[in-house]
Known about the structure:
The complex is a heterodimer of chains A (about 110) and B (about 120).
Chain A: E1 5-7, E2 10-13, E3 19-24, E4 31-38, E5 42-50, E6 53-56, E7 65-71, E8 74-79, E9 88-95, E10 103-104, E11 108-112
Parallel strand pairs in A: 2-11
Antiparallel strand pairs in A: 1-3, 3-8, 4-5, 4-9, 5-6, 7-8, 9-10, 9-11
Chain B: E1 5-7, E2 10-14, E3 19-24, E4 31-37, E5 44-49, E6 55-58, E7 61-65, E8 71-76, E9 85-93, E10 102-105, E11 109-114
Parallel strand pairs in B: 2-11
Antiparallel strand pairs in B: 1-3, 3-8, 4-5, 4-9, 6-7, 7-8, 9-10, 9-11
Amino acid sequence: DAGVIQSPRHEVTEMGQEVTLRCKPISGHDYLFWYRQTMMRGLELLIYFNNNVPIDDSGMPEDRFSAKMPNASFSTLKIQPSEPRDSAVYFCASSLGPGAGAFFGQGTRLTVV
Amino acid sequence: TQLLEQSPQFLSIQEGENLTVYCNSSSVFSSLQWYRQEPGEGPVLLVTVVTGGEVKKLKRLTFQFGDARKDSSLHITAAQPGDTGLYLCAGLFWAGGTSYGKLTFGQGTILTVHP
Lengths: 113, 115
């Protein structure tokens, strides 16, 4: 298995632009997580899905952030409009179930200028 | 919001020394996981502990889960430069309702092992 695949690896965009991050989880994994990592705040859980259904989005910073999982093999995290404070590394992870251990992608480094 | 506190935040040691990293919370974990992250990569799972008092060993790494399932430790024996990285603990808390998969991470411990 290729593992969790994220794209793009790097994204530089101007403030106010829409940004879409993409994730392909490991086949057969029922859980998908979106995290954001910064030096100041560490690894923060934004939202997670179970069987394509959003279960907990309490970590989503504000309405500018949205996430979808239209099928078991694809998820997106969208920021519209983007702001400089959104600059961070965004990780997608998937797992077989609670407590099973999460497998992370390589992340998308987002820079908003 | 469940908080996981890791200590120390930074650890710089010489090759061959032993070290311990701690992870504490005021909440009870359903399970706890330890990850290691290298620069430019995502965290990689090292171990999962589920039972209070559980001890797991992975070569030179020993993981312990507290009896009350509120704390955990990672002990590395005879550290090597290849152990350098960010070590993260992550707790699975039952947040009520259907939110039983919420995996929350500590701030991490940056370990540097000098040759």
